[in-house]
Amino acid sequence: MKVVVSANGAGLDASASPVFGRCPTYVFVDTETMAAESVENSAANAGGGAGIQAAQFVVEQGAQAVISGNLGPNAYNVFQAAGVSCYLFPGGTVRDAVEALKAGELSVLGGANVAAHAGMRAAAGRGGGTGRGMRVAASQAASARSARDQEVEALREMTGDLRKQLAEVMSRLEELEREG
C-alpha cells in the first residue's frame, strides 16, 4: 500500500511533522517494500488553501493512506471524498509512523482534529508554552481573524474558478449537443 507521511525532512529517518498542509516534505512509502520517495510540499507557503492543495497533490500521487500529527477540515474533506484513510501519529520518524500503521497501532481519524488554518500558526512558529500569556491569546485572536479573512478570499477565488470551469463544461456540452 502507498502511504504518505507529513515530514520535516526527506527519507524514512526524517521526523514526522505535526502539521499536514504546511509541512515541509511529504514522504511517500510503499508499506511492503519500505521504498520511500520524498517530495517538497509546494503548498507549504501558500497564502491560503494549503491544506486543500496539499491534499489534492497527495491524492494525485496515489496515496491510499495519510499519516500526520494533525489534519484540518479542508484537507480531511478532500481525503474523505477520494476514499483515502487518515491516521493520527503522535510523533517520531517517518519509519516509526509506517511501522505503527503496519502494526495496527494508529488511530483512524473520523474527522479533522484541528480547526481550519491551525497549521498557519505552527508554520509561523507561534503558539503557547513560552510564557507569553495574553500576548499569545491576542496574537492568536488576530491570527484567527486574519485566517478567516484569508479563508474567505480563498473560497471566493475557488468559487470564481468553479464558475469558470462550469461555464467551460456547459459551453462544451452545448457544442457537442449541436453537433450530435
Q: What can you tell me about this protein's structure?
A:
This protein is an alpha/beta fold and 180 residues long. The protein folds into two domains: 2-118, Dinitrogenase iron-molybdenum cofactor biosynthesis domain (Nucleotidyltransferase, domain 5); 126-179. 47% of the residues lie in helices and 15% in strands. It contains five helices and six strands; from the N terminus they run βββαβαβαβαα. The protein has helices spanning 50-60, 73-82, 94-102, 118-124, 133-179; strands at residues 2-7, 25-30, 36-40, 65-68, 85-88, 107-108. The protein has a six-stranded mixed beta sheet, sandwiched between helices. β2 (25-30) and β3 form a beta hairpin.
Please name the defining characteristics of this protein.
elongated; 2 domains; alpha/beta; 180 residues; Nucleotidyltransferase, domain 5; 6 strands; 15% strand
Question: Based on DSSP secondary structure assignment, what is the total number of beta strands?
Answer: 6
Radius of gyration: 19 Å
- Helix/strand/pairing class, anyone? alpha/beta
Order of helices and strands: EEEHEHEHEHH
Blueprint (SSEs and pairs):
Elements: E1 2-7, E2 25-30, E3 36-40, H1 50-60, E4 65-68, H2 73-82, E5 85-88, H3 94-102, E6 107-108, H4 118-124, H5 133-179
